[in-house]
Specification:
10 helices
Amino acid sequence: MSTPMHASNPMCVSGMAALAWEVPDEIAMYARTGTDLVGLPTAKAAAFGVSRLAELLDRHGLGLGYLVQPFAAHPEDQEGWTRQLAALAAAVRDAHRLGAGVVYLTSGPSGHLDWERAADLFAARISPVVQLARSLRVGLAVENTMSLRSDISFTHTARDAFALAERANMGVCLDLYCCWQERGLAELVAAQREQIAIVQVSDFVLGTSSFPSRWVPGDADLPMQQLLAEVLRAGYDGIVDAELIGPAIEDEGAESALTRSVAWMRSQIASVKRQDQNRR
């Protein structure tokens, strides 16, 4: 399967909003949102079947933007690491067959290791899969997460995600929801633009203490319009992905929330391009 060609900054929607949906209904729903691409958990894609998924995506005129594979094995759990590395290698092969350019993952927990030792161990362990991905022309990317998710990650800032990615010869899935207040973010993005494989957007109501709780971008309190504009003005032309999950999305319904998110992303990207053209 070959992924449909799109202009710069193709729109993507994350499968996090429809985790409980049956895959045929899920993909049909995504097609109605107006998105270009979809992103799916590796386990869900594999369980459905790669050939069946390829046919389904083709039927609905969609491409697969990425597969996502969270890491959760403790650093001392060698068997757990062996299993998750095998799953990641399988995901890379599936992404190649499906025409997806990226598999992104979380770093896994650090256990009792300090950041540097955890990062060195991660880079050493993942190296064979990085080489496999390179041979198949599939990018691997590590995601920045909230510190609340220390069960699956030790990269809790964009700066740390870029540092780990550099150690491991990978890219970065930059989740703006998780780093919106980070000091020097615009300058960091401008300096590391080539490492960014995916940019994720969503929103958050300040004061919310239950998680996961994401809102449609533009609905709540984060300066997501400014954040996305800074990334785009740094020259980023890759996937922009709406990752939505939580009570607000469930109350509205995944299709409505994702449809509005796609419209918001298209509007923001078009606005930045118009402003840049007017300045020339």
